[in-house]
Amino acid sequence: MDIQSLPSRLLENAVQEMSSLPGVGRKTALRLVLHLLKQPREHVERFGASFITLRNEVKRCRVCSNISDEDTCSVCANPRRDHSAICVVENIKDVMSIEGTGQYSGVYHVLGGIISPIDGVGPSDLTFEELTARVAAGGVREVIVALSTTMEGETTAYYLYKKLHGYPVLISALARGVGFGDELEYTDEITLGRSIKNRTPFENIFGSKQ
Amino acid sequence: MDIQSLPSRLLENAVQEMSSLPGVGRKTALRLVLHLLKQPREHVERFGASFITLRNEVKRCRVCSNISDEDTCSVCANPRRDHSAICVVENIKDVMSIEGTGQYSGVYHVLGGIISPIDGVGPSDLTFEELTARVAAGGVREVIVALSTTMEGETTAYYLYKKLHGYPVLISALARGVGFGDELEYTDEITLGRSIKNRTPFENIFGSKQ
After folding, report:
1. Which CATH architecture has domain A80-209?
2. Which of A18, A24, A96 faces B3 most closely, judged by CB atoms?
3. Which ipTM was obtained for this model?
4. Do A45 and B68 touch (CB under 8 A)?
5. Which of B43, B52, B57, B196 to mutate to test the interface with A (most CBs of A within 10 A)?
6. Using only C-alpha atoms, what is the Rg of chain B?
7. In chain B, which residues have their Cβ closer than 8 Å to the Cβ of A89?
């Protein structure tokens, strides 16, 4: 099927927008858009508006930078969570992953990325300052580094360790149940749950480098 | 990863809307929505608005029911097309498929579906009346039935033949190069192009049933 020339500029426009999504080719985009075209107007309006509303109205938790509808996310606002343990993750998907294991009762800190010179992401692009402020404010017993075990993740973890090891907190990392080179979000829940339970003091990992 | 409980109602809402698309599961929907969340606001607004605008503003050609930005589609408005030949198709995707072969210079008629008692689609749900009116108005030499060779397609074709065979037009069908049970939109262009060139008089197919 030739889908280079669509019979409508509006259709062409919608197909182009749909195919801007990662992993959605032009043929799939056309199929999805034609599906939408068959739906009632109210449905399509709800569909389109949901992304605009999300983008414009969703907030970042002022404590941990997790995604939230309120100024403070539901984890940070929960008095039954252990606020003396902070689990540092790359992004909000990782928060969902760890929450999904049901093994963790502390709070989080979302870095918003990892240090990656190739992608031009340095420490100042991430929420290290906010994390240091949280630790410096006191009441924090442990910082758990839960980053992917890739080169960038290890670099970020080491930077974090250097930045925090002057404070009276235990810095720990996920247990080495996570294989080297694995992406955190694709790790199964059992491995992930076990590795957050068996987290190990940072010295055991980076001790030789000091 | 457990994605049953998302940290934001707005996110949950957007993920639900995204997963309403055919073939998009909850996990894929989350990935796509998080991608959108990282885009600039203007991009997301353009994205969401494109589907709403398409749904609200796109028109059906008043002649052939094909999708169009104008009252009359670009095929029907083209004086160089052969307006004495009408190719009857199920939907607008089939128009694109046949246009893609570059083998057809006539015009189209989009039925908007096929007769399917199981899905509750009867002749009155489709544009048979409009087609009959076009043929009755005169100037039509040939009606080419280009429907999928499924049970429903054959039923629809036979209904159409019965409805039109009193008029002085040649009713033809796609050549039987299309295998029985094939969906039209997945047929390769060579087969489809050949079958519209070698279309055969209707009598040769349904003659024995009369």
Report:
1. 3-Layer(aba) Sandwich (3.40)
2. A96
3. 0.76
4. no
5. B52
6. 21
7. none
The residue of B6, B9, B10, B60 whose CB has the most chain A CBs within 10 angstroms, and thus the best one to mutate to test that interface, is B10
Cβ-Cβ contacts under 8 Å between A and B: the total is 188
The C-alpha of A202 sits at a distance from chain B's nearest C-alpha, in angstroms, of 26
> Residue B93 pLDDT > 60, yes or no?
yes
Reported confidence tier of residue A7, pLDDT bands at 50, 70, 90:
confident
Cross-chain Cβ contact A48/B46 below 8 Å: no
CB-based burial, B45-81: b 16+ in 10 Å, e otherwise: bbbbbbbbbbbeebebbebbbbbbeeeebbbbeeeeb
The domain locations on chain A are 9-57, 80-209
Percentage of residues of chain A with pLDDT beyond 90: 61
Residues 6 or more apart whose Cβ sits within 8 Å of residue B40: none
SS3 A150: coil
Average pLDDT in the B35-53 region? 95
Q: With CB atoms and an 8 Å threshold, state whether A1 touches B54.
A: no
User: Counting every residue, how long is chain A?
Assistant: 210
Closest residue by Cα to residue A97 from A30, A184, A207:
A184
Looking at chain A from residue 171 to 210, which residues have their Cβ under 8 Å from any Cβ of chain B? 185, 189
The rounded distance, in Å, linking the Cα atoms of A109 and B56 is 43
Given an 8 Å threshold on Cβ–Cβ distance, is A5 in contact with B45? no
pTM beyond 0.95? no
pLDDT of residue B4: 58
Q: Which of A8, A17, A30 sits opposite B69 (nearest CB)?
A: A8
Amino acid at A147: L
Tell me the CATH class for A9-57: mainly alpha
> Average pLDDT in the A42-64 region?
95
pLDDT tens for residues A164-186? 989 999 998 877 666 667 777 77
Question: Is the model's pLDDT at B138 over the cut of 70?
Answer: yes
Instruction: For an interface test with B, give the residue of A17, A54, A73 to mutate (most B CBs within 10 A).
Output: A54
Which tokens sit at B77? 């408005």
Nearest 5°: phi and psi at B132? -60, -40
The predicted-structure confidence for B105-122, as pLDDT tens digits, reads as follows 999 999 999 999 888 999
CA dist A37 and B7 (Å) reads 31
